[in-house]
Queue: 4 jobs
Job 1
Amino acid sequence: MLEILKRAREIAELVRRQDDVLIVTHIDADGITSGAIAFESLSRAGIECDIVFVKNLDLRLIEELANANRFVWFTDLGSGSLDLILKHDIDCVITDHHIPANCYYRYHLNPHDFGYDGTYDLCGATTTYLVARYLGFNYDLVSIAIVGAVGDLQDSKEGKLLGLNRKILEEAVEGKFIKIVRDLRFFGKQTRPIYKMLEYTFDPYLPGISGNERGAIEFFESLGIPLKEGDLWRRWIDLTPEERRLVISELVKICIEAGMPIKLIKRLVGETYILLHEEEGTELRDATEYSTLLNATARYGYCDVGLRVCLGDRDEAFRKARALLRNHRKNLSNGLKLVDEIGIVELENIQYFHAKNEILDTIVGIVAGMCFSKANLDKPIVAFAYCDEGVKVSARATQRLVERGVHLAKAIKIAAAKVGGQGGGHSIAAGATIPRGTEEEFLRELDRIIGEQIGSQL
């Protein structure tokens, strides 16, 4: 930790000497929060800055950045392209958590370089926050950093934040920015009618309830829990502690009867993070809902809206983000229905589906992850969707698969390169872009590599 903080301080000192900075960040919740932390800390330090959001760093973009001749702060990306960045002599700093290219750069902060795991120990936002702490009095930005960590699913391993993220979380709790509450880990506890919260829960898939409005309503009726209080629909936060315990107990029974693994059932309940300075009953009160709201802006090309929400806009930007969120949840539901229709194809070591143009390439990975609730938990899921650059590949594994030796980022990078594409990510989640028509060759190679990874652990 001390070595990481020393590097963070060195990076902050270099940034502080700049008059103008271009922030380049990723288009997801972690990327938006990372960019927001960098943007706000620079603004407070009196440093002029602009921000751009990108899907990935390809050679064309790196050449454009080199020709722009500006100082660049890469957040939540850059590590995997470090060799190209250095080759093009871009004056920059990098705060990222993805697996780095095999080269050294003094102003590069990445947990992997210090023996930590970028999947669980630090995300883009928490890594960027460590630098922001040395740029000025920016301790209040810790809430946004935790939202980024949750949005990057860094709490998915044990239902809570771990490692260096935990240290930052403790700082947030001590500063009275965040409260830790052990609760149901479903989306919509702050904002949705309780039956809608369950109806739109697909991770895990609740038999007879997920995607079934009538089933969700009957579930609460069978427990004698009123859906309304007067004319108002009751939300999870409106239920009594006794009612919440009853619901959780019954959900556990349903999951057991459905044959779900105990490890998955245990993840129904875990730590949730409440942002104490946000209004109760809004999507911004709960870190999970906040991150989903940001994802809804990013996945549809409105990262600027998510950025403005992070920077405090609770009017126009917040209203726009909420509208995008409603559309996002609808698209995820439709995506799951499509997968039910086309089916998931199983190979020896992996399983996959090809959504073609039916699911947006920006959300196909989210759909893939949600499919684990009703797919084979012993094989990684690979999802394809067409995109402007060719075919977007999104792969997801379970923690159990990672423990058995699966490392999706390493596997997908090799498989993508073999067919003329690019890939990377984390052990449990990774992505790539490959040329159209190479999907079968890519699958054969990925299936082989995953088989070797699992075999090496036997």
Job 2
Amino acid sequence: MNRKKNLITEYRRYYLPLEFPVVLIDGPIWVISDIPSDRLHFHNCMELGICHSESGKLEIQNISYDFKGGDITCIPRNVPHTTYSTKGKLSLWSYIFFSPAILFKGMMNSSSLELSISKSQYKEFKYILNEVQYAALHNIVLSALTELREKKENYQQVVKSLLFSFYIMFLRIQKDEGIVHDIKGKEDMPLVIKAIDYVEDNYSEKISVDDIASFCCVSTSHFRRVFLSIMNISPLNYLNSIRVTKACNLLLSTNYKIVQISEDVGFYSVANFNRNF
């Protein structure tokens, strides 16, 4: 009997400078293959994409959404997904990755700074916004792309304002049009995403795998088994990889000493920091 292949979910980390946590991925090479991936992936930040041409599908877990040229996609952090073009086509994209929690800090209620999906009943976001129905948002994204490409004087302030406007309008859409949707056949994924969100928000504290499992209301052994089967990495290694990534950000963006950075990201000893780094 053939065993069912485990679903592997890949974590893709993007370095977002603390002073301006926005990254543009752009250009003629950014085309999406027409071959569906055998794995999902998710990011440590929000992914804002715009499809310039052709069509294809966006998959969020076992739900498939059609996209076409002109559409905007917006994927919150820690949401496993994959994208592929229509058979025989290569869709052209631009992507903006950013952290609302850092970029908009002090500009809005902290509880609204990060969208997350972490319950067994998922709120079905409108991940795809078409150009006709959401023309205003489409124009905002195009303006942000132009600013990021040209980098004229004070472009960072302009991009911040544009993305803030986009984000507020996007939140309104979720509130007005979002619905509750059951994800069938993926009982373990909500648990893993809940754990990922918890780690992202608490990595600087003295948390352990036991603490994460307790937060998810499951036994530690069950949690380790489920997390490893989906993420292809142990919970402890994942936690430490997040801490190392945050440390790299601080090393590149500040003049903090190693001992301070190790404490700020949750290692609490230089020896432990060095070992994991």
Job 3
Amino acid sequence: IFAQTQLALATGTVFNDKNGSGTRESDELPLRGWTVFADADRDGVLDPGEISTTTNSKGGYRLNLPAARYLIRVVVGSGYRVTSPMSGSFDVTLDNAEAVRNVFACTTLALLSGNVFSDTNSDGALNGNDAALKGWRVFDDTDGDGVWDANEASSVTDAGGKYRLLLAAAG
């Protein structure tokens, strides 16, 4: 008698996250011809022997995999970055005949992020006694006048002084 092993299935889509939100909007199109792979050795690189596929015309992919733990990754196209998942990959442990579905959001928007803090010792680094500054506006001063204008990308710092600023293009 032979034991039959059923493969696990990882499916999903890859789409162009035009607004960088990480959530698919009705006008955000699929990305076809993109490579998605099961990173078995978890090194971030598609190696020979790792299972991969390319997305179809609807941005869909399908990976038939032996039961194991994988990082499901997308090979990011030139000029793009992954907005969701924030880690850039899905960490999955698959059993025989199990199925998972994951969605990759990718954008051409540049991301600038950081912290705003009171540099109490003037060393230029966030450390022990420095306090996070909540509610401060960080903006892309496209016209160089030192004043935030409503048409300039901006972000307000959170309770931890952190900000994330999406920019239309790198530069």
Job 4
Amino acid sequence: SRLEIIFDSGHEPMQDQAGRLNSLLGKYLQATDDALLEYFGQAPLLSAFAGEREASCNGESGRTFEGDYRSIELRGCSNITLRNVRVGQLNVLDSRLTLIDTDILGQDVGLQAENSDVTITNGKISGAIAIKAVGSRLDLAGVQLQGSRAACNGVNSKLVFSVSRTSSPYSAGYLHAYKNMVNESF
């Protein structure tokens, strides 16, 4: 992201300074990925996290996790929230959860989701494969994926990306798209 100050505007620059706002937005929306990388710079690869604490959830609902963890495993859980978490690996099976301001700093796989519904707002996910999704639905907004082998590997999974960024041998740049992944990587 980049801060641009639009003078002589209130809370609604799209009305107060429509020309200036359209000019700024158009500049970035029409830029190539290479131009954006040059302008903003390549994000450094995240190193693996080596916290000590481990957590699990088995058939529970309504739990909230915060802080640093080596790993978290969720099985058959619903209405789970991870807020301001740094975790080495997150394994999710038959669960429904929301991640907010959470970084997953994996080595092999950062986030492994199977038959799960995962919503992620603002965070970083790294690993050889940042996300491995099987039969899952993921909604990512403002998420940075860094995979040395793949940003995402999906099998029969649906992923929605809003203003997210990927870095892998397959792709690098910003992503704002819906992906119905049958058996593929990017």
